[in-house]
Amino acid sequence: MKQANQKYTAVKQALAAVADSARAVPMAAYMRNQFAFYGIPAAARRQAYKEAIKAFKRAPAIDYDFLNLCFGDSHREMQYFVVDALAGVQRRLTPDDVRHIEPYLRHKQWWDTIDGLDKVVGRIGLNDPAYRPKIEEMMRSWAQDANFWMRRAAIDHQRGMKEQTNPELLAELIEMNLGSDEFFINKAIGWSLREYSKTDPDWVRDFLDGHQRQMAHLSVSEASKYL
């Protein structure tokens, strides 16, 4: 745990060194003042903790004690570090890692971390053919979770997978959430369909033809953007 604390302190100091209080105010406001910010733009933030990411990727094992400390920090950029660190070791992750990652999806919830972490979890299924059924079963469970952010994570977890998308699963997860009046769910439905329309527009058209009456206008509008 001592090493985890040392690494956490190093990342925190690296970010604090380039903090911009003038930027922090509008950045916090954009996230509805739910989180404190150092006020660092994405490129500068990643530059600040670049060496920490390199060291994290070189380590023989994933230090979740370190990531837990970072995610528990009051500054939002520290949660972004966790997302970037996990993305950096994406190909090493297995379904067993989800038990460590899921708490990050369930705490300090907002679209910024949810949309980064769901992509990390989704791609675990691409690391090994044996992993995919396990991830897909998790997503079926998440798609029915009482917490709408978990449902959003499930709906969007295949975003950007292109030809590796499982369209039957995509349809199943969306169908579980049709009729919702939650903005972030309806946005996710439209976003996931819009992304897949870049790969298989005919499939998305067929899905819309069969489900449009059950879908929110926002979902249809988003899904139709490239059709």
UniProtKB/TrEMBL annotation:
Protein name (Swiss-Prot/TrEMBL): DNA alkylation repair protein
Q: Name one Pfam family in it.
A: DNA_alkylation
Q: Which Gene3D superfamilies match?
A: ARM repeat domains, Hypothetical protein (EF3068)
Domain of life according to the entry: Bacteria
Q: Which CDD domains does the record associate with it?
A: AlkD_like_1 (cd07064)
Gene source species: Candidatus Pseudoramibacter fermentans
